[in-house]
Amino acid sequence: AAEAKAAAEEKAAREESQAKAAEAQEAARRQEALIEENRAKDREAAEAARRQEALIEENRAKAAKAKAAEEAKAAHLASKAKAAEALPQKRGLKPYWCDACGVSHNPMNGPCPKQKKHTKRFKVHVTTKLQSDCKI
Protein backbone atom coordinates (compact mmCIF):
# COMPACT_ATOMS: atom_id res chain seq x y z
CA ALA A 1 0.00 0.00 0.00
CA ALA A 2 2.88 2.31 0.82
CA GLU A 3 4.41 1.52 -2.56
CA ALA A 4 1.15 2.27 -4.31
CA LYS A 5 0.81 5.49 -2.35
CA ALA A 6 4.40 6.49 -3.23
CA ALA A 7 3.80 5.58 -6.89
CA ALA A 8 0.59 7.63 -6.90
CA GLU A 9 2.38 10.58 -5.30
CA GLU A 10 5.23 10.23 -7.79
CA LYS A 11 2.73 10.09 -10.64
CA ALA A 12 0.89 13.15 -9.25
CA ALA A 13 4.21 15.00 -8.85
CA ARG A 14 5.17 14.05 -12.44
CA GLU A 15 1.81 15.23 -13.78
CA GLU A 16 2.09 18.43 -11.76
CA SER A 17 5.64 18.98 -13.07
CA GLN A 18 4.44 18.30 -16.65
CA ALA A 19 1.54 20.71 -16.13
CA LYS A 20 3.95 23.36 -14.81
CA ALA A 21 6.30 22.76 -17.76
CA ALA A 22 3.37 23.01 -20.21
CA GLU A 23 2.22 26.18 -18.47
CA ALA A 24 5.76 27.61 -18.66
CA GLN A 25 5.94 26.71 -22.37
CA GLU A 26 2.57 28.36 -22.95
CA ALA A 27 3.74 31.47 -21.07
CA ALA A 28 6.93 31.51 -23.17
CA ARG A 29 4.84 31.15 -26.37
CA ARG A 30 2.57 34.01 -25.27
CA GLN A 31 5.64 36.14 -24.47
CA GLU A 32 7.16 35.36 -27.89
CA ALA A 33 3.84 36.20 -29.59
CA LEU A 34 3.74 39.53 -27.72
CA ILE A 35 7.31 40.30 -28.74
CA GLU A 36 6.53 39.46 -32.39
CA GLU A 37 3.39 41.61 -32.25
CA ASN A 38 5.42 44.54 -30.86
CA ARG A 39 8.04 44.09 -33.60
CA ALA A 40 5.29 44.16 -36.23
CA LYS A 41 3.87 47.35 -34.69
CA ASP A 42 7.36 48.91 -34.68
CA ARG A 43 7.88 48.00 -38.35
CA GLU A 44 4.48 49.43 -39.20
CA ALA A 45 5.25 52.66 -37.31
CA ALA A 46 8.64 52.96 -39.05
CA GLU A 47 6.98 52.47 -42.45
CA ALA A 48 4.36 55.10 -41.59
CA ALA A 49 7.14 57.50 -40.55
CA ARG A 50 8.97 56.87 -43.85
CA ARG A 51 5.78 57.51 -45.82
CA GLN A 52 5.17 60.70 -43.82
CA GLU A 53 8.75 61.89 -44.46
CA ALA A 54 8.37 61.18 -48.19
CA LEU A 55 5.11 63.13 -48.23
CA ILE A 56 6.75 66.06 -46.44
CA GLU A 57 9.65 66.02 -48.91
CA GLU A 58 7.23 65.89 -51.84
CA ASN A 59 5.30 68.85 -50.43
CA ARG A 60 8.55 70.80 -49.96
CA ALA A 61 9.47 70.12 -53.58
CA LYS A 62 6.02 71.25 -54.75
CA ALA A 63 6.27 74.41 -52.63
CA ALA A 64 9.74 75.20 -54.01
CA LYS A 65 8.50 74.66 -57.56
CA ALA A 66 5.45 76.87 -56.94
CA LYS A 67 7.65 79.57 -55.38
CA ALA A 68 10.02 79.48 -58.37
CA ALA A 69 7.07 79.74 -60.76
CA GLU A 70 5.65 82.63 -58.75
CA GLU A 71 9.01 84.44 -58.79
CA ALA A 72 9.31 83.90 -62.54
CA LYS A 73 5.79 85.24 -63.02
CA ALA A 74 6.58 88.26 -60.81
CA ALA A 75 9.77 88.94 -62.79
CA HIS A 76 7.83 88.65 -66.04
CA LEU A 77 5.15 91.03 -64.78
CA ALA A 78 7.83 93.46 -63.58
CA SER A 79 9.53 93.45 -66.99
CA LYS A 80 6.14 93.91 -68.64
CA ALA A 81 5.39 96.86 -66.35
CA LYS A 82 8.81 98.35 -67.10
CA ALA A 83 8.17 98.01 -70.84
CA ALA A 84 4.71 99.54 -70.42
CA GLU A 85 6.29 102.44 -68.52
CA ALA A 86 8.68 103.08 -71.39
CA LEU A 87 5.93 103.00 -74.04
CA PRO A 88 4.01 106.14 -73.02
CA GLN A 89 7.24 108.14 -73.27
CA LYS A 90 7.74 106.88 -76.81
CA ARG A 91 4.10 107.50 -77.67
CA GLY A 92 4.49 111.14 -76.67
CA LEU A 93 7.19 111.65 -79.30
CA LYS A 94 6.07 113.34 -82.49
CA PRO A 95 7.27 112.35 -85.96
CA TYR A 96 10.33 114.38 -86.88
CA TRP A 97 11.84 115.62 -90.13
CA CYS A 98 15.14 113.98 -90.96
CA ASP A 99 17.66 116.14 -92.82
CA ALA A 100 19.79 113.11 -93.61
CA CYS A 101 17.26 111.37 -95.85
CA GLY A 102 14.65 114.12 -96.39
CA VAL A 103 11.57 112.34 -94.98
CA SER A 104 9.50 112.34 -91.79
CA HIS A 105 10.26 109.57 -89.27
CA ASN A 106 8.11 108.05 -86.54
CA PRO A 107 10.25 107.63 -83.40
CA MET A 108 8.33 104.43 -82.55
CA ASN A 109 10.10 102.77 -85.50
CA GLY A 110 13.52 103.70 -84.18
CA PRO A 111 16.11 106.05 -85.63
CA CYS A 112 16.55 106.79 -89.30
CA PRO A 113 18.24 103.91 -91.14
CA LYS A 114 20.73 106.34 -92.68
CA GLN A 115 21.36 107.87 -89.28
CA LYS A 116 21.95 104.37 -87.93
CA LYS A 117 24.54 103.66 -90.60
CA HIS A 118 26.12 106.99 -89.96
CA THR A 119 26.38 106.42 -86.22
CA LYS A 120 27.85 102.97 -86.77
CA ARG A 121 30.59 104.28 -89.07
CA PHE A 122 31.24 107.55 -87.27
CA LYS A 123 30.28 107.49 -83.62
CA VAL A 124 30.63 111.27 -83.47
CA HIS A 125 27.62 112.01 -85.71
CA VAL A 126 24.57 111.34 -83.57
CA THR A 127 21.98 114.01 -84.33
CA THR A 128 20.44 114.66 -87.73
CA LYS A 129 21.75 118.24 -87.67
CA LEU A 130 25.32 116.99 -87.37
CA GLN A 131 24.62 114.47 -90.10
CA SER A 132 23.34 117.12 -92.45
CA ASP A 133 26.54 119.08 -91.81
CA CYS A 134 28.60 115.99 -92.47
CA LYS A 135 30.26 116.07 -95.92
CA ILE A 136 30.70 112.27 -96.20
Task: Describe the protein's architecture and organization.
It is a single chain. With 136 residues, the chain is mainly alpha-helical. It folds into two domains: 1-92; 93-136, no CATH class. Helices cover 77% and strands 4% of the residues. The chain has three helices and two strands. Strands 1-2 form a two-stranded antiparallel sheet. The radius of gyration is 49 Å and the shape is rod-shaped. The protein starts with a helix and ends with a helix. The model is unreliable at 118-128 (pLDDT under 50).
Summed up, what is this model?
The protein is mostly helical. It contains three helices and two strands, in the order αββαα.
Question: Rounded to an integer, what's the Rg over CA atoms?
Answer: 49 Å
Low-confidence stretches: 118-128
Tally of contiguous helical segments: 3
Proportion of residues in β-strands:
under 5%
Rounded mean pLDDT is 81
Structural class: mainly alpha
Shape label: rod-shaped
In N-to-C order, the SSE pattern is HEEHH
Strand segment count = 2
Q: What composes the largest sheet?
A: 2 strands, antiparallel
Helix content: over 70%
* First and last CA, distance: 151 Å
Order of strands in the sheet with most strands:
1-2
How are the elements arranged and paired?
Elements: H1 2-91, E1 96-98, E2 103-105, H2 113-121, H3 128-133
Antiparallel strand pairs: 1-2
